[in-house]
Amino acid sequence: MKKIYHHIVFLTGAGFSAESGLATFRGNGGLWNGCKVEDVATKEALANNRNKMFDFYNHLRREAAAAEPNAAHLALAELQKKYPGEVSIITQNLDMLHEKAKSQNVVHIHGQINQFRCLNCNNVQTARGDIFPDMPCPCCGVRGYIRPNIVLFGEPLFFQQQAALLLKSADLFVAAGTSGEIYPAAGFAGEAKENGALTVALNLTIPKNHLCFRTVVLGKAGDNVPKFAEKLLALADIARRRR
Ligand SMILES: [Zn+2]
User: Fold this and answer.
1) What residues have a C-beta under 5 A from ligand 1, the ion?
2) Coil, strand, or helix at residue 206?
3) Fold of the domain built from segment(s) 1-21+69-110+158-243
């Protein structure tokens, strides 16, 4: 590892928030009221199963609002504050735990659970509580057009250009708490690597896209991320003292 990186980019995923008690709703056991995220995060559900979809995201919003950042979020916020280079965060998580931990400039490529938008006037609003399919839009007043402001399967990511710019300028890319299954985000490691970044994965299991990483460190985000952040700060400190 280098002593000081000019720009470190973290990509965080469900595993990052798991220790804050937020379930992933994906894969085995990831069920809520018998439904997986694959059943509700679709354009079909938005068109034909709005009640179930809104119920699911209302539940998720309540859980996320009650959750607190864990050691991984706090370590990353601390790293942003103390590191002599730039530290950016791209997250696939809908929760606001990075912000609660006082991280800056978090890029939510899959959207935010605390927002909804109107398909009639395109305005994005903050959801302070549950939202309902027939709710009138607070902006244009038309009913039946609001939806959670999240990226559904098959929809393009939010902030794609911004993410691409970050991946271009990164000299260290760290995927933390993400198993590399969901594209396009799973392609970020390969992109960063092609652009010349050192790529590291910190995850509970070997990520699906493991070939894109120079190093894979297995373990919980709450253990791995603080250790990794400490190492980065220690290396930067050595470099500073040598100057
Ligand atoms: Zn509207």
Assistant:
1) 118, 120-121, 137, 139-140
2) coil
3) Rossmann fold (3.40.50)
Instruction: Check if 110 is active-site.
Output: yes
Mean pLDDT to the nearest integer, 82-91 = 97
| pLDDT of res. 1 | 82
Q: Domain 23-66+113-150 in CATH: superfamily?
A: SIR2/SIRT2 'Small Domain' (3.30.1600.10)
Domain ranges of the chain: 1-21+69-110+158-243, 23-66+113-150
Q: Using an 8 Å Cβ cutoff, are 173 and 88 in contact?
A: no
Q: How sure is the predictor about 3, in pLDDT bands with cuts at 50, 70 and 90?
A: confident
pTM of the model: 0.94
Selecting among 73, 98, 108, 110, the annotated active-site residue is 110
What is the spatial distance between Cα 171 and Cα 195, in angstroms, rounded to a whole number? 8
- pLDDT at position 204 is 94
How many helices (H) and strands (E) the chain has is answered by 9, 9
